[in-house]
Amino acid sequence: MADVVAFKKEEPNGLLLREVNGPVLRLTLNNTPANALSIALMQALAAELDAAAGAKEIKVVVIAATGKVFSAGHDLKEMTLHRADEDGGRAFFETAIRLAADIMLKIARLPQAVIAEIDGLATAAGCQLVASCDLAICTDSSTFCTPGVNIGLFCSTPMVALSRAAHRKQAMEMLLTGETIDASTAKDFGLVNRIVPQQYLRQVVDKYAAVIASKSPQALKIGKEAFYRQAEMPLADAYDYAVGVMVENMLGNDAQEGIGAFLGKRMPEWKED
């Protein structure tokens, strides 16, 4: 495997928009018209996720996009230019694809819940981004696909996220055919949680974010990590692991406060983790 090379790009200059509303961080892909995941955009997104991980005031992260395309995936024009490199582009391809994979891992490991807000097409690594988020809410006109097979490039890295979000046979259907599915089919496949009219998309996402942000940050952090870890374990091992997690959670301050508030018929007062 080739060494990952740090390809320096110009400053993002608006490729990623950042907005904070109380405990909610909204990151908006702004590389129109296709919101391609260029090196510069991915570096900006990775940096924001790293910063959010250590920001106790942030409880929820929303990933949205401007324009009619949520994301068309990797910037194929940028990648094609590097075929002229001495190594045929190998080092650049490794860097770009690895950077995308690292972003998906950052989302899974982020202590905060991450919500994808989709209005338009999410394709290839853009679909991977949707599948990697904890929740996904889309408009009724949104569409999804993993079309690599159509251009001789199987969507192997999108496959990792897709096969963990959608049902296995439905994920294979998307990967093998490369065909575009509509929002209703994406919901049936398990790729998205909710479908809403376009005019209500932001309102619904904000409501989800507010509800999640109102919960115990300690419980959310523990629970999200446990969810992804147990999902990769055999059933008996998952229960053994979850028992330990829940015992430690019960011993925590937030569980004591939350149970006390429930029994005392009052609202809980969460402490910063």
TrEMBL record:
Pfam families: ECH_1
Source organism, top-level taxon: Bacteria
GO biological process: fatty acid metabolic process
Keywords, in A-Z order: Fatty acid metabolism, Lipid metabolism, Transit peptide
InterPro entries associated with the record: ClpP/crotonase-like_dom_sf (IPR029045), Enoyl-CoA_hydra/iso (IPR001753), Enoyl-CoA_hydra_C (IPR014748), Mitochondrial_ECH-domain (IPR052377)
Any one Gene Ontology molecular-function term assigned to this protein's record: hydro-lyase activity
Function: May play a role in fatty acid biosynthesis and insulin sensitivity.
Family: Belongs to the enoyl-CoA hydratase/isomerase family.
The protein, known as: Enoyl-CoA hydratase domain-containing protein 3, mitochondrial
Native source species: Sinorhizobium fredii (strain NBRC 101917 / NGR234)
Lineage: Bacteria, Pseudomonadati, Pseudomonadota, Alphaproteobacteria, Hyphomicrobiales
